[in-house]
Design goal:
alpha+beta, Helix Hairpins, 2 domains, six-stranded antiparallel sheet, 6 strands, elongated
């Protein structure tokens, strides 16, 4: 084999050095624990949809279990009542048997003495004894019947109680799973929110540089992002109102500047349902939680205002809408 030239040796050394470097880098990544890139919004939304579907199934199963539990408890209560009545019948029959046994013993003894004295025909005495035995047999059969009924009801009661216990355990397990799923849903929604960087600049002291409205909706980019995130996360049913030429009775000064939106919890100026009041509470809490990251200036909801240091009451402006009972108002810097 021909000897390598100096240039060939140098080239081979460079290739070998590069190969060793690549191997060392790969080993370093493996030892450090290589992490996959952050999931995309599309992937997270798909995972979120699956979890929400699972959560709905759990809720349906939970309520079906509640109905089954009510039926089991009702059956257990009925079995307990049947057992009580069967026990009373059993005790009454037992008492009748005891009374007849005493009477039979008494009359049997008297009959034997009478026969010895010649006062009663032996055939008549045998007939009496046979009749007494027949009554005893009938009472004994009746007693055995009551015993069977009592035992059957006792078994039914035990089975119903066990069924109710099983259902309660299943409901507790299902409820715990539902709570874990709901927490996971919130976590995924938070991760989706974080995928969207807040537009605009912040000063050195952390305050936000004001933005001008833009686009056909005449709102600022920060306000547009908050509107988008709330619509995606909460699914506001009664609409979202943002820009209008004047502040209006409940709007303050940010609506004409494109820095405020109203997230409606009812329509026609009516008071929201309890469910929608809860939804408004969630939206308000979310906006306050993300205040610094998104540039939220303040939130108004149910005649209260929160600038980040807690809720404060507001003066009465004279109506459901004016007092912000039917919508959550969010203003941005």
């Amino acid at each position: 084999m021909a000897a390598l030239s100096r240039d060939d040796r140098r080239g081979a050394l460079r290739v070998l050095t590069a190969s060793i470097t690549v191997v060392l880098m790969c080993a370093g990544l493996a030892s450090a624990g290589y992490t996959e890139p952050k999931p995309t919004a599309r992937k997270l939304r798909k995972e979120l949809a699956q979890l929400q579907k699972r959560s709905k199934t759990m809720i349906a199963e939970y309520y079906a279990g509640r109905v089954a539990l009510q039926k089991a408890e009702k059956a257990e209560k009925a079995a307990r009542g049947d057992l009580r009545r069967a026990q009373q019948d059993f005790e009454q029959a037992s008492e009748e048997i005891r009374t007849m046994a005493v009477e039979r013993y008494r009359t049997g003894g008297l009959g034997a003495v009478t026969v010895l004295m010649g006062g009663v025909d032996p055939a008549t005495m045998l007939n009496r004894m046979a009749l007494s035995q027949q009554i005893v047999n009938e009472q004994d059969a009746e007693l055995r019947g009551f015993t069977g009924i009592r035992d059957a009801h006792r078994q039914a009661r035990t089975a119903a109680a066990q069924r109710a216990t099983e259902i309660r355990t299943s409901l507790e397990r299902l409820d715990a799973q539902k709570r874990r799923t709901e927490k996971l849903i919130v976590m995924i929604k938070d991760r989706i929110d974080l995928l969207y960087p807040t537009p605009g600049l912040r000063r050195a002291d952390g305050t936000w540089v004001p933005q001008l409205p833009s686009g056909p909706d005449n709102i600022t980019p920060r306000m547009r992002l908050v509107r988008q995130l709330i619509a995606q996360r909460f699914g506001v049913r009664f609409g979202i109102g943002c820009y209008r030429a004047d502040g209006g009775i409940a709007g303050g000064g940010e609506h004409p500047l494109g820095r405020a939106c109203d997230f409606m919890m009812s329509s026609g100026g009516s008071m929201p349902s309890a469910e929608n009041v809860g939804l408004g509470d969630e939206i308000a809490a979310w906006a306050i939680k993300n205040k610094d990251r998104l540039g939220v200036k303040y939130v108004i909801w149910r005649q209260r205002i929160n600038t980040g240091s807690g809720w404060r009451g507001m003066s009465n402006r004279g109506g459901v809408t004016a007092n912000h009972y039917d919508h959550v108002h969010i203003s941005m810097f």
